[in-house]
Q: What sequence folds into this?
């Protein structure tokens, strides 16, 4: 009798296990309304997250934390880890870059406006040599906009796909807002703010631009 | 029924045969099981080697097993290692959905699992899930591919094994970048199941149907090697090939001017990290880190290929 019960219990628990349903943790931005769970609802969830956080939190964060180019360069001479801990935010995971908000102005030494990933190489210290590159879109590389923000955390997202979609949506939002003047940029003065990700203190700077002004 | 049973017995015999050569009986902190896909792909061998080396360093015995991407075999292996009383399991799993039950089974038996390379679709079952940021890596590979292609032209994509979650993630990462370039035209996309020989055949027929192909982006390095061999055989070494994994084979091809780029997943270091976390968990009850952890990938091209060795970049 006891044996039979045991067998039944084992069978029962085996069946219960097979019938287990995996319930996913709702990602940020998920509401109790009609937003779809899983990958099908990613775009809607991320759009809602951006509406809530892009201007109110992320742009505010960039504006508040942006260091002048020269100040960030000076901070980096002490070392990336120290500069990062003081001024930046590290992306999720092993080997992730430090991300900084930066602002400045400089003369365009060279520009590529024919690529889908338009770029302007800027001289910000007046030595006639370009010392950083501005990304002018529409294709923006990297995830520094997302990874600058401590409030976008990998662990809050379903998986790396949803987390990556956030980065892409942020890049798209930033690039869509940029007014890049027509014609040759070479020689023009550009004032900008944006974000940069660095894996070493000596990495070349590739800046994701969020604000841009040009002077003749 | 008979057939079924014979299959199971056969499977167990294979399991036992697989264990014996790598399991010795020295006293230590116990045994850590290391279960990965077949070592035919050097990537998985690097994982197993990295984990085994770290286990030995920390005073454990390593029990190295392969599931051949077969979820049933993986389930049997879990039964075996649970019965053997291993202290922890390092797993590169055989399917994001199918593996949840196996990992749960180990957890129920009091054995913690530490996942590497591939995610599973549940959290709170494994102690750690350390995965390469495949999406980020795919974006790096795609950016290089687009640059090499001059942002325009016909290309083909070789996709990995469907049951492997990373096949889909990489493909999405590739397209996230490439599809932003309207002059890049994908003329063929097909799975070659991570297989070099299959990729050779697939590439041959893709070339016949689409002689205008200018580039091939591949979900991993073994398929990239197969595609490159087919391109060489067809006299089409002008075609730009980009892979993923960072294998020594592709490194050598890059250095000889064959395949143009790949993306390194730090497989060896990742496996070592998993064992270190297993040790921390076993000795202190906590890994001290979150369950899901990403590791960034690194673009490998002619500039840095010489520094690549066994899925690690030398400083």
A:
């Amino acid at each position: 009798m006891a044996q039979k019960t045991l067998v039944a219990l084992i069978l029962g628990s085996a069946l219960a296990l097979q019938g287990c349903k995996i319930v996913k943790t709702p990602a940020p931005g998920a509401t109790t309304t009609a937003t779809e769970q899983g990958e099908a609802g990613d775009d809607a969830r991320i759009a809602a997250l951006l509406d809530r956080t892009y201007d109110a939190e992320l742009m505010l964060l960039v504006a508040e934390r942006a260091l002048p180019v020269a100040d960030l360069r000076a901070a980096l001479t002490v070392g990336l880890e120290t500069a990062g801990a003081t001024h930046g935010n590290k992306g999720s995971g092993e080997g992730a870059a430090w991300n900084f908000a930066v602002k400045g102005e400089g003369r365009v030494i060279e520009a590529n406006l024919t690529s889908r990933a338009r770029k302007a190489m800027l001289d910000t210290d007046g030595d006639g040599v370009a010392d950083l590159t501005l990304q002018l879109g529409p294709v923006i590389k990297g995830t520094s906009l997302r990874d600058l923000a401590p409030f976008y955390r990998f662990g809050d997202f379903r998986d790396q796909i949803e987390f990556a979609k956030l980065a892409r949506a942020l890049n798209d939002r930033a690039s869509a807002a940029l007014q890049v003047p027509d014609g040759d940029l070479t020689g023009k003065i550009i004032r900008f703010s944006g974000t940069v990700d660095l894996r070493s203190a000596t990495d070349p700077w590739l800046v994701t631009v969020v604000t841009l002004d040009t002077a003749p | 029924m008979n057939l079924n049973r014979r299959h199971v017995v056969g499977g167990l015999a294979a399991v036992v045969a697989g264990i014996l050569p790598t399991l010795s009986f020295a006293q230590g902190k116990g045994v850590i099981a290391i279960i990965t896909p077949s070592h035919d792909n050097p990537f998985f061998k690097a994982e197993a080697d990295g984990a085994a080396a770290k286990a030995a360093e920390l005073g454990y015995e390593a029990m190295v097993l392969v599931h051949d991407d077969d979820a049933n075999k993986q389930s049997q292996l879990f039964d075996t290692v649970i019965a053997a009383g291993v202290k922890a399991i390092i797993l590169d799993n055989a399917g994001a959905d199918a593996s949840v039950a196996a990992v749960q089974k180990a957890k129920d038996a009091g054995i913690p699992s530490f996942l590497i390379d591939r995610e599973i679709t549940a959290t709170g079952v494994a102690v750690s899930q350390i995965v390469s940021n495949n999406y980020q890596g795919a974006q790096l590979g795609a950016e290089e591919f687009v640059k090499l292609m001059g942002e325009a032209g016909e290309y083909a994509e070789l996709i990995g094994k469907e049951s492997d979650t990373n096949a889909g993630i990489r493909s999405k990462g590739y397209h996230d970048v490439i599809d932003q370039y309207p002059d890049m035209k994908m003329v063929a996309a097909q799975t070659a199941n991570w297989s070099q020989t299959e990729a050779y055949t697939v590439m041959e027929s893709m070339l016949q149907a689409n002689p205008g192909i200018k580039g091939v982006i591949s979900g991993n390095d073994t398929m990239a090697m197969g595609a490159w061999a087919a391109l060489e055989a067809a006299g089409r070494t002008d075609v730009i090939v980009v892979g993923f994994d960072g294998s020594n084979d592709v490194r050598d091809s890059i250095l000889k001017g064959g395949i143009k780029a790949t993306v390194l997943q730090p497989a060896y270091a990742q496996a070592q990290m998993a064992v270190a976390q297993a040790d921390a968990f076993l000795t202190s009850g906590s890994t001290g880190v979150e369950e899901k952890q990403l590791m960034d990938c690194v673009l490998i091209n002619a500039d840095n290929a010489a520094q690549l060795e066994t899925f690690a970049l030398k400083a």
